[in-house]
Specification:
Blueprint (H helix, E strand, L loop, with lengths): L6 E9 L4 E2 L3 E11 L8 E7 L10 E8 L13 H7 L2 E7 L5 E5 L5 H20 L4 H10 L7 H10 L9 H17 L4 H18 L4 H18 L6 H15 L7 H23 L11 H24 L1 E3 L2 H28 L5 H23 L4 E3 L5 H20 L4 H20 L4 E5 L7 E5 L9 E5 L7 H12 L4 E7 L7 H10 L1 E7 L7 H13 L2 E4 L6 E6 L2 E8 L2 E7 L3 E5 L4 E6 L2 E6 L12 H4 L7 E3 H4 L2 E6 L2 E6 L5
Helix pairs in contact: 2-3, 2-11, 3-12, 4-12, 5-6, 5-7, 6-7, 7-8, 8-9, 9-10, 10-11, 11-12, 13-14, 15-16
Length: 661
């Protein structure tokens, strides 16, 4: 499919997923049957359709004419790689259709009949919720009941995330477990035989899985539930470990890329943690001594604590945050979510029969959803319980789980074997130190930015104490701190900035430094601003004084020395609005120009880096340098992505996040 990128093509294919409708466009996933009247290889295409009144649905055969594009990724490390995400879902191309005449439906109901009816039922439930509840309660209910969170306002979604309960908006094992618990109790109350009840629940869980789109978390739980329920029917012993292993195997056989998906990892690790740790917590604190009434609250606390202990390093690795509220908020929220889910299911069933019956359940559900909203608003407002952090090292995560494994071993077998204790202590020390001392090279990183330059200089551990220098001329009008700088520093395991160079002649630095100070520990700020009397600059200086940062304006000063360690330092000077850094020892020079064209010199080798689209800045190529350079030493961040240059003993290793062929 790559040979068709950036060409106009005509596609005939079938919509194989439920269309996602936004306010101004609709996303459809097409399994192409023909491209330009030719048979095509395997792979799906994501089509974004705007300005079109057609009502797409699963199973429609469509004909599309437009330009096929490769899924875009800026190449900035630490940011969401949209292209890789689509590739893991077998999507290798995208199209944008703005002209309604370039797409038409040529046939209906060409997909799987059962899946089509399941999606029809899903859309009916969505409309019932939308008609019976106002927003944002309707959007929240669709998220909890169906996993459809595209209409939830970003502000509310962030509150769920800060409260540590964002998982309730993605249909997962929690939802399936609650549904099984509710219906199992109802069928038992109706005196339905055990095996018949298990068969009914198999049909119900399978239907719910299909209605919610068979996403990985619910598919995993459905397989586990089917294994357990089947064991009940055939009078076999139920083994959760076997059920979980079966679910993992089936998912990986269907899509091996699932292994690298954050949801897949969190789902299985949380389940494994609940299975392994909850019984131990119950043994450590005997229930007969607990005065808490009712005692199921302790069980809920043990389950929540087990899940959170299990997933903490994975959450920190993928999302760079931890919510300390999550243990307590999950206990408080779980009963409310169970009631919301039950009322939502009842409203869906009765709403299909007669829409006016929905209002019997919608009023109490509105009250519960409002209580849920106010609760997460309270939890999210307490900032110190929400911790942002850089990405942990893989070795740290391995050490964390080894420590848990050793704790389990010690609880069951005691501490009789001291050799195991000493061996574990040695392994943990090695795991902690190895990623921090393995690199003895200086790393210079250039990221792609729509506005200004972003350059990171990272010194190795040891004598330089892992010091970092960040150079930016960004005014943050494109929100580059959040979109580029913050993900870059977290991906590089950086939580402090020793020297921040504001390499911008104008004085609009306030947005950059305020946003950086929210997420990182700033030590010293160096500024080259020329104007010192403007209102913006005065506010900037007030912020510097308020936060107690060390500040220095170096525009009109002689060359200054930035000490890094004993024997290592950086000579810095400004001339003609260019910033020149000389790292000693090492014969390393870095020239930062206002045109976002940078020259890195290591001995006699010069490397030219453009931090904007190369075609826009071709006129800035210096001929004196160009004629003495090899083309392989000319890089541009729009084509190469993040450019990381590691220098050790005058040896240079250049890594680019984008493959350029």
């Amino acid at each position: 499919m790559q040979r068709l990128y950036n060409t106009d093509i005509q596609i005939k294919g079938i919509i194989i997923k439920d269309p996602v409708r936004r306010r101004f466009y609709t996303n459809i996933v097409i399994s192409p049957e023909q491209i330009n009247d030719l048979q095509i290889p395997k792979g799906l295409i994501l089509v974004r359709v705007s300005s079109c009144n057609l009502k797409f649905k699963y199973g429609d055969k469509v004909q599309v004419f437009g330009k096929l594009s490769q899924p875009y990724w800026s190449g900035n490390i630490g940011t969401f790689n949209y292209g890789k995400y689509l590739e893991r879902h077998n999507i290798y191309g995208t199209m944008k259709i703005k002209n309604a005449g370039n797409i038409k439906i040529v046939a209906r109901n060409e997909g799987n009949f059962i899946i089509g009816k399941a999606f029809t039922l899903k859309n009916m439930i969505k409309m019932i919720n939308k008609r019976s509840l106002p927003d944002p309660q309707a959007a929240m209910l669709n998220g909890i009941l169906l996993g459809m969170r595209e209409n939830i306002p970003q502000q509310i979604f962030d509150m769920f995330r800060k409260s540590g309960i964002v998982h309730i908006l993605a249909v997962s094992g929690l939802h399936v477990g609650l549904i099984l618990l509710m219906f199992w109790g109802f069928l038992k109350l109706c005196r339905i035989p055990k095996k018949v009840a298990a068969l009914i629940l198999i049909l119900l869980v399978t239907l719910y899985c299909m209605v919610t789109g068979m996403r990985d978390p619910i598919f995993r739980t459905t397989i586990m539930a089917l294994a357990v329920l089947t064991a009940i029917i055939i009078d076999r012993e139920q083994n959760l470990y076997i059920s979980m292993s079966l679910a993992c195997l089936v998912l990986l056989l269907i899509n091996p890329y699932s292994l690298f998906n954050a949801g897949f990892q969190l789902s299985f690790i949380a389940t494994l943690g609940i299975i392994c740790l909850t019984p131990i917590l119950k043994e450590l604190i005997p229930l007969e001594r607990i005065k808490l009434k009712p005692r199921f609250l302790f069980i809920a606390f043990a389950v929540s604590l087990s899940a959170q202990i299990s997933v903490m390093p994975i959450v920190a690795y993928h999302f760079n945050y931890l919510s300390l509220w999550s243990i307590f908020s999950n206990i408080l929220i779980l009963p409310i979510v169970a009631c919301i889910l039950a009322l939502g299911l009842l409203a869906s069933v009765f709403g299909i029969l007669w829409i006016k019956l929905v209002y019997i359940f919608s009023m109490p559900n509105w009250i519960l959803l409002t209580i849920l909203l106010r609760t997460i608003e309270f939890f999210s407002s307490i900032d110190f319980m929400y911790l942002e952090m850089p990405k942990p090292y893989i070795a740290d995560i391995i050490g964390y789980y080894l420590l848990i494994a050793f704790a389990l071993y010690a609880l069951y077998n005691g501490m009789k074997n001291r050799k195991i204790l000493y061996a574990l202590a040695l392994i943990l020390v090695i795991l902690f130190l190895s990623p921090r001392i393995k690199s003895s090279s200086i790393e210079v990183v250039f990221s792609h930015s729509p506005d200004g330059d972003i350059v990171l200089i990272k010194f190795p551990c040891g004598r330089t104490r892992n010091k970092t220098i960040l150079i930016t001329s960004d005014s943050n009008k494109f929100n580059n701190v959040e979109k580029v700088i913050q993900p870059l520093l977290w991906a590089k395991h950086i939580s402090k900035i020793d020297y921040l160079f504001l390499n911008r002649v104008s004085d609009d630095h306030l947005g950059t430094i305020v946003d950086l100070s929210k997420h990182f520990d700033l030590k010293q700020v160096l500024d080259i601003a020329q104007s010192k009397n403007s209102f913006t600059y005065k506010n900037f200086r007030k912020f510097i004084e308020h936060t107690g940062l060390t500040y220095r304006n170096i525009k009109h000063e002689a060359p200054i020395l930035i000490p890094i360690s004993i024997g290592t330092g950086i000579n810095c000077r400004i001339y003609n609005s260019n910033l020149k850094l000389c790292i000693a020892p090492g014969n390393i020079e870095l020239l930062i120009t206002p045109d976002c064209m940078h020259i890195l010199s290591i001995n006699d080798r010069k490397i030219l880096i453009y931090q904007h689209p190369s075609q826009k800045f071709s006129k800035y190529k210096p001929p004196i340098i160009k004629k003495n350079m090899d083309d392989k030493d000319i890089y541009c961040t729009d084509t190469h992505g993040t450019i990381s240059i590691k220098i050790k003993n005058n040896r240079v290793n250049i890594l680019c996040s984008k493959k350029t062929g």
